[in-house]
Amino acid sequence: MIILRLIAESFRFATDALRQNKLRTMLSLLGITIGIFTIISVFSAVDTLRNKLQESVDKLGSNTLFVQKWPWVFNDFPWWKYVNRPEPTLRDYQLLKDRLDHVDGISYEADASNRTIKYRSNSVDGVGLKAVSHDFNKTWTLEFEEGRYFTENESKSSTPVVILGWEVANGLFSGEPAVGKQVKVMGRRLTVIGVFKKEGESMLGMSQDNNMVIPLNFAKGLFDVQNERYGPQITVRGKENIDLAEVESELRGAMRSIHRIRPGQEDDFSMNKTTMISNQLDLMFKMVNIAGWVIGGFSILVGGFGIANIMFVSVKERTNIIGIQKSLGAKNYFILLQFMFEAIALCVLGGILGLLLVYGITLVFTYVMDVKIVLDANNIILGISISVIIGAISGFWPAFSASRMDPVEAIRS
């Protein structure tokens, strides 16, 4: 109880000192406030960006593999190894369907970008046209606002049907029901059988909102689905209870067998997966976090020196009071705690102001610029923790020197 009372008394002394020197206190806070604001704002922006990118990556599926000509990540960029590779073909796709056992679905996809779709006098430009095989709904997670997916007969018989993204349907029909209406694409009329749910913007372009999806067999009459310009790929989704490494091994073996690649020869195809992107994101954001620490660290360092300087001034001003306290029986640790609490309180107050500035910035971005930036609990705890640590470091030597004063000499000063 005596220790708690001494701590409470030390805290009261520190609070009174801060309240009596308001201008000096506010000026002392600036360095810490700017430092905490810099570090936490960088971390909040990085976390927000990372979350948005990770959401886009997650849409690809953690157990999904993509057979493509080009890899997503280059090691030392040996582009000459990839230029002469063949694109994934329909033959590859058909043979993989017969050979793979550890998969839930295999689909062949080709993209014809920047197409115009028309309905009566309305048109939407810059739409992505996806030609997909029937199992597209098994390799991607699809949700419908209205309508349905292709039937097996529609996929096989080249039926002129289309599924629209939410933005495309809204641009053509202005919120009216789309199913059953006919639209015109690349000179052909197609019947709308479904509309995807709105997904929102995706930083990696994974959203279906501005796409339209048609059966692969029908698309063969519109363009060469195996041509490199349309980026053909084979998408393979592994079974949930099968490890991705096992699915990857089976898929690689099947592709090497189909392409008749001898042991020891390099693959003439790329197998891409979401972990490749996630690893690159980890590396990139690690560097950004380091930059945030360096930039904010200098501000906090300057603020820490400012706090230490103010504390030395405070000790000098209250030397005679320290002498009186010690002559009345105050222990060294009581004097030490008194000034330590004052330094920590200064830094914590500066940290709180910095966090409030960050919070204000998040509100401006969220409600004025429609960009949601999140200030999460981890960053708040980090900001307060840094403030406490800097306060303890900055205040220790002034507090220690005050605690070691001789009471007689202090009173005479």
TrEMBL record:
Segments crossing the lipid bilayer: 27-46, 290-312, 333-360, 380-400
Compartment(s) where it occurs, according to its Swiss-Prot or TrEMBL record: Cell membrane
PANTHER family per record: ABC TRANSPORTER PERMEASE, MEMBRANE COMPONENT OF TRANSPORTER-RELATED
InterPro entries in UniProt: ABC3_permease_C, MacB_PCD, Macrolide_Exporter_MacB
Membrane topology per record: Multi-pass membrane protein
MacB-like periplasmic core domain location: 25-252
Keywords, in A-Z order: Cell membrane, Membrane, Transmembrane, Transmembrane helix
Pfam families, A to Z: FtsX, MacB_PCD
Keyword Transmembrane tagged: yes
One MF annotation (Gene Ontology) recorded for this entry: transmembrane transporter activity
UniProt name for this protein: Putative ABC transport system permease protein
Principal cellular location given in the protein's record: membrane
ABC3 transporter permease C-terminal domain ranges (all copies): 294-407
Any one cellular-component term (Gene Ontology): plasma membrane
Lineage, uppermost ranks: Bacteria, Pseudomonadati, Bacteroidota, Sphingobacteriia, Sphingobacteriales
Highest taxon of the lineage: Bacteria
